[in-house]
Amino acid sequence: MKFSRRSFLCCTGSILGSGILGSFSFEFRKKRDSVSNQIVTVGAHPWIYAAQLPGYDITPVLETIFQDMKHAHFDGIELMHHPLMDSRQVNLLKDLIDKYGLPVMGTSYGANMWDRAQHSSILKDVRIILDNLALVSGRTMGISVGNAESIKTGDQLDAQAELLVEIRKMARDRNIEINLHNHTYEVENEMHDLRGTLRRIPDIFLGPDINWLSRGGVDPVRFIIEFGKQIVFMHLRDEDQNGKWSESLGEGNTDFNAVAKALRKIDFQGDLVVELAHESGFKPTRPIRESLSMSREYVKKVMGY
């Protein structure tokens, strides 16, 4: 069914009026912030491994990922969706969770949600992913809505909002919460894409990536302050003064101290996830697990989590 803008506003207005915004509780809370005594989970995302693999499918290296992230003392793992598309991987994931004592926090997922022609196939995939994510006690899905390669029209924004509403209901039926995870395309052009979604679903949770915000021309600190009540998740990545990704957090030019201060100002009690990345052609100077360890220690030392 196609929703009008008025339908969206009526629907989300009812949700806001019922007090759901901010009330969906996350049970996985392990670390208390050393400065403010807030509870924050610090995890890691496996993009650094996926970038080297065909189709970005991390399934063949799942145990290595668990080993390395356990070595780096993370609280949990945010998966990529590929292993969750195959029910045969559920038992493997359960075994790895038990073996390494490292929970699956959730998964990232992206699709062209602005294209109604793809909605049926997207929903089919999402249902499988959410079912399997629930089986491994995951509780969050970070969603990217897809790049239309041009500024999205009102109809395209309506389409992606329609689908997000359906996915959110499907996720909450499984005790999973979604958040909007941005790349640059959502926040370029004065945040046309993101603000377009928020006009249609004012109460949707956000999971910004501070590096993509910067690359999209948005100040991460100002973003955190503006949207603080809706931010439940955040990706952390660093880059050098020359604009290229650094090998680990703390080796670049990002002001994580200012980010931490902004998070405390909004009383952040969500998930922080380190997502390392290498530029094309970059030759690592150390094993990934050591860069992960350095990044985890940096978050603890500089940000206090």
**How widely separated are the two ends?**
44 Å
Overall 3D form: globular
Largest sheet: 8 strands, mixed
Q: How does CATH name the architecture?
A: Alpha-Beta Barrel
- The mean pLDDT is 90
Could you tell me the CATH topology label. TIM Barrel
Q: Number of DSSP strands?
A: 8
Q: Class, according to the CATH hierarchy?
A: Alpha Beta
Fold and architecture overview:
The protein is built from eleven helices and eight strands. It has 305 residues and is of the alpha/beta class. It has a single domain, classed as Alpha-Beta Barrel (TIM Barrel), CATH 3.20.20.150. Strands 1, 2, 3, 4, 5, 6, 7 and 8 form an eight-stranded mixed β-sheet that branches. Helix 9 (220-227) runs parallel beside helix 10 (256-265). It starts with a helix and ends with a helix.
Structure, briefly:
The protein is of the alpha/beta class. The chain contains 11 helices and 8 strands.
List the helices and strands and how they pair.
Blueprint lengths: L4 H13 L13 E2 L6 E6 L2 H4 L11 H10 L4 E5 L9 H11 L3 E7 L8 H17 L4 E5 L9 H19 L4 E4 L7 H13 L9 H6 L4 H8 L5 E4 L19 H10 L5 E4 L13 H16 L2
Helix pairs in contact: 3-4, 5-6, 6-7, 9-10
Key structural traits:
305 residues, alpha/beta, globular, TIM Barrel
